[in-house]
Amino acid sequence: MDVVAALTPFALVCARTTAFVFTAPPFAHGGIPMTVKTMLAVLLAVCLAPGQTAPDGAFELVTGVVTEVGIGAGMGLLASTVLSAVQSAGHIIDLEGGFQLGEAFDPLTSASSGPYARFYQMLATVLLFASNGYQMLLLGFARSFAAVPPGAALEVRGLSDALSREVPQLLLAAIQIAGPLVAVLFLADLGLGLLTRVAPSLNAFAMGFPLKILLTLVLGVVALVALPSVVSALASRAVDLILGQP
């Protein structure tokens, strides 16, 4: 009975840690092997299980495991929503710079994306590891057990409210990241349009795609310079959402 009593809290904690690791960035990245994700989830459960309580009874245990999976997946989804602003900025640059024509299937995200979107997504993952942003996420997740202990009810309404608040912020952050480059590309389109009006015989738009691609490659550094601070701020925001702070 002592073994069962000790393993019951571990099962609940492990259900939450597994769902979080498999949904939250940067751990959910397709480039991280499944074995590494599983080992990380079990290690987190071993560290966080001591001192946790669990309900009695088989039915309560099964219900608790399902609830913990929902809580962990919800926290991971919130973190993923916040940090996906970087990849969304890459999609905007692909669209405005003409790189969307080279869109291909990305096996790491199981979705179709342009080169800048893939590059920004990989760069954000690297920055999370290089700047210890992943430690902030893990610390916030560990503190969530004090705010929402194992066996607590899953607040679906709170999760939906948080997601509805963060989707506009995601779009705003993506526009802020890609904004300077998008403004330059818009001015380039405007200049080509004026040039066509002045010299109709000159096919200015034939130069549009190579010119915009050149500007995107040259001026893309502007957006990259601000990316480390942006990723750090987004990681802090993700931690606040995990802890339930608006």
UniProtKB/TrEMBL annotation:
Record-linked Pfam families: Bac_export_1
Predominant place of localization: membrane
Entry keyword set: Cell membrane, Cell projection, Cilium, Flagellum, Membrane, Transmembrane, Transmembrane helix
Membrane topology (UniProt): Multi-pass membrane protein
Family: Belongs to the FliR/MopE/SpaR family.
Cellular compartments annotated: Cell membrane
Keyword Transmembrane helix: yes
InterPro entries reported in the protein's UniProt record: T3SS_IM_R
Record's keyword annotation contains DNA damage: no
The protein, known as: Flagellar biosynthetic protein FliR
Lineage: Bacteria, Bacillati, Actinomycetota, Actinomycetes, Actinomycetales
Transmembrane regions listed in the UniProt entry: 29-49, 61-86, 119-141, 170-193, 213-235
